[in-house]
């Protein structure tokens, strides 16, 4: 998917909501556990109930890998289901990968070709040659970790590294990489006040913003400091939406929570 | 596996060799492609031919994920085969994971419980709460990226961050985390001269050292600067060993290459 297709979808739906599909078998409704593939059945129901309210889905790979082969199979079925039934949705493999060049190429193949996601999250620690292999894929997007939503972000990301915080070094340096136009960035909603500075460095890039909801981030603040002329934001909510109910009405309850955010977003978009 | 069991095995075999199982279907012998699971058959043959020469195996997860479900299945069969037949071998999931706390717990379950690896590589960018969930597992080891073997290591890892290079900040800070005794570190062989400084900060920790062989690192230099009283090194070679031949003699050729390194290591151990 191209960035302009994503922007078009945002304007059409008046939503820049991304729903995180972080499926934990201990948290989903009990009646689904009888199904052959509870994870996929859960995702399918959530997607069918919410696709008109959001523009992106973001399965976090950890939650699938934890269930081994069955988990990976559920991930594959989930992305195939979304791509087949809702091809207008932007898909994010939240995988936080990154390795030496020939290895990053294999990760890129895994998520862009084998699983056909539109984008993947990547960690910047190993530098240019660990990220550029992802950037060579046409109409695919690499979402680089810049300033994450957790407390540990203050351990290294905000350290002053030769005149500016490390996450700003990451933003500035990554702009010089080959095919940098395929970069987006992760910036946590819990650090909304940093967004004004971040927009100075990358005014045009899309930001994936986790941390609204369960982690305590505020939507209004994120939009105030982070929105640009093309919206430029994907606000993710995972637990706050998908675990709204543990009963048979779980999909409806998720849609209701998603709708609350979508209404708020429509107001902001004006 | 405990660290002292690993040290015992190193002394018994006079080897601190780790063999990287980075299986690329374009590089393995053609006759294996007829097998139902070529990746597993390749690994099985390599492991059977080399297990007496090395102390660890390190599958890189990217090479398995790139083949989707079949790849993940081959990874599962490989770790199960090693654990069943050669339980004395230390196993490393080279996965370079790391995410917010509840997600890192899921990754830890994936690699320590579902796949039963002894260790996993983890990226430090997201800080303490992204790494500590891995450290809570008893007799499991978390191998934190410090200074990697690639050129991109100089983009951020060697930046001066408040008085010292970022990778040194990572080493020092990580020593203060809960269950830090379960940490090991990745330090690339291509930067052997940095090892003297690194040993000042973490004299006792095991180091996983990639980059000998295909990437140009030198074994003698690594040992000169990096070895401690308990050896404290796992030297990884992947492509230089497993792709020594593309013919039917590939396993024998791999053993021959592994033996060259083991002989050199035995001499160093004295």
Supply Rg of chain A. Answer: 18 Å
Number of helices of chain A: 12
CATH homologous superfamily placement of chain A: Aldolase class I
Instruction: Determine the strand fraction of chain A and express it as a percent band.
Output: 15-25%
Largest interface: A-B, 59 and 59 residues
**Helix-residue proportion of chain A:** 40-55%
Per DSSP E runs of 2 or more residues, the count of β-strands of chain A stands at 10
Q: Uncertain spans of chain A, ≥5 residues at pLDDT below 50?
A: none
List descriptors.
homodimer, 270 residues, alpha/beta, TIM Barrel, eight-stranded parallel beta barrel, two-stranded antiparallel sheet, 12 helices, 10 strands, 45% helix, globular, RibuloseP-bd_barrel (chains A, B), OMPdecase_type-2 (chains A, B), orotidine-5'-phosphate decarboxylase activity (chains A, B)
Describe the structure.
The structure is a homodimer of 270-residue chains. By secondary structure, chain A is α/β, with parallel strands linked by helices. Chain A has one domain: TIM Barrel (Alpha-Beta Barrel), CATH 3.20.20. In chain A, the strands form two sheets. An eight-stranded parallel beta barrel of chain A has the order 1-2-3-4-5-8-9-10, surrounded by six helices. In chain A, strands 6-7 form a two-stranded antiparallel sheet. In chain A, helix 9 links the parallel strand 8 and strand 9. The radius of gyration of chain A is 18 Å and the shape is globular. The model of chain A has no long low-confidence stretch (mean pLDDT 97). Chains A, B: One of its GO terms (molecular function) is orotidine-5'-phosphate decarboxylase activity. Chains A, B: InterPro entries: Aldolase_TIM, OMPdecase_type-2, OMPdeCOase_dom, RibuloseP-bd_barrel. Chains A, B: Belongs to the OMP decarboxylase family. Type 2 subfamily. Chains A, B: Pfam families: OMPdecase (PF00215).
